[in-house]
Write a sequence for this structure.
């Protein structure tokens, strides 16, 4: 039994998790106040996913203190709060000419290095320790190499010779004078980044191996995680390969939502809340994405057809397109849902097909014993209970 799982240590674990969560909340509130004072935008959409990391980390840390992922999420929340508070304080200092004061100097110094461990925690460490720690001892070298790489990079950044304040910079009190101002252009940074990238790829491989070998509860947990990671990967990949999407307001809206899916899916998997509903969630998500795209395509296509080919006014085109899209939605949704369920939610699809076949046979069957046997067989096939029995009133 580990220290975090012993009954005596659980109150301390809850207190630590609550303390980090409280620090994050105070950090967000302080950031909003500082940005208001600096007359800058106070709302950032990325607050949503990082708040999700903080909330899920707090829930896991207080209820499942033995799960390392909760502490990884809390570390992400801590670094995020420190980073956004420091950035807001530096912006206010630049505006009011306060650069060089002790607290402000510390806030600017944190901006040099906090991002590197934050990104590493949200990627490599999250994938390696989900859901209940390292899958086996042979993955420990990956954690060691990743930790050393990000640790050295963080120290390199923290020892930069100067600290930036907008367009000006001041000497770093703990900086190395002969050190490169931009560590990302050094050979050592390139080598360590390659090690970090290799470790992150290895963590992705570990997920694939664990998913292939998983069964039962663990497999359902892996499905939840892969669902959240898949949503994030879809949006990120689209933004990477489609510049128009990357520069659009749609990406600014979808990326925070997709990033939020990662901690939320991890929390659902570890807390095992409605764990086995993942197939239904995936099938509904895929079907509604497909239906939405098809309906939008019908709408745009009908508008273009009526305006450019038939020559009607835009108001007529919009009205006709709305009617066409509304008429096509329900039959299209039903058709797409059946196709998607057949691929992503096969158990539910087979169960519905079994019940439909039984209903069709029931219309023509009059023998009570045959109906009873057929009903028991249908229930056993569709629901797969441990035992099944039927009582018939005399």
């Amino acid at each position: 039994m580990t220290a975090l799982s012993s009954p005596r240590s659980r109150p301390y674990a809850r207190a630590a998790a609550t303390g980090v969560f409280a620090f994050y909340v105070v950090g967000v509130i302080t950031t909003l106040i500082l940005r208001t004072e600096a007359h800058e935008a106070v709302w950032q959409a990325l607050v949503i996913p990082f708040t999700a990391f903080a909330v899920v980390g707090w829930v896991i840390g207080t209820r499942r203190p033995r799960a390392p992922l909760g502490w990884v999420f809390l570390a992400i929340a801590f670094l995020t709060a420190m980073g956004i508070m420091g950035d807001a304080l530096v912006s206010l200092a630049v505006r009011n000419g306060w650069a060089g004061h002790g607290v402000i100097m510390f806030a600017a110094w944190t901006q040099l290095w906090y991002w590197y461990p934050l990104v590493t925690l949200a990627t490599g460490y999250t994938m390696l320790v989900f859901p209940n720690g390292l899958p086996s001892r042979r993955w420990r070298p990956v954690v060691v190499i990743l930790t050393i790489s990000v640790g050295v990079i963080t120290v390199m950044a923290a020892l930069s010779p100067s600290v930036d304040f907008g367009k000006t910079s001041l000497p770093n009190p703990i900086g190395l004078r002969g050190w490169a101002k931009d560590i990302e252009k050094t050979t050592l940074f390139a080598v360590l980044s390659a090690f970090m990238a290799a470790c992150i790829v290895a963590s992705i491989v570990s997920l694939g191996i664990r998913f292939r070998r998983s069964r039962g509860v663990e497999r359902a947990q892996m499905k939840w995680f892969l669902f959240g990671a898949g949503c994030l990967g879809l949006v990120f990949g689209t933004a990477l390969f489609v510049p128009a999407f990357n520069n659009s307001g749609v990406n600014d809206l979808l990326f925070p939502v997709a990033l939020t899916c990662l901690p939320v899916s991890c929390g659902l998997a570890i807390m095992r809340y409605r764990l086995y509903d993942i197939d239904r969630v995936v099938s509904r998500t895929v079907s509604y994405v497909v239906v939405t795209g098809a309906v939008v395509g019908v709408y745009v296509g009908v508008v273009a057809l009526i305006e450019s080919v038939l020559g009607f006014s835009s108001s007529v085109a919009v009205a006709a397109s709305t009617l066409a899209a509304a008429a096509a939605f329900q039959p299209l949704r039903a058709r797409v849902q059946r196709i998607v369920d057949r691929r992503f939610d096969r158990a539910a699809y087979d169960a519905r097909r079994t019940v439909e076949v039984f209903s069709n046979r029931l219309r023509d069957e009059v023998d009570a014993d045959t109906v009873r046997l057929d009903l028991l067989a249908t229930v056993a096939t569709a629901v797969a209970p441990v035992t099944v029995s039927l009582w018939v009133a005399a």
User: Anything to note?
Assistant: Residues 1-111 form one domain. The longest strand covers residues 162-165.
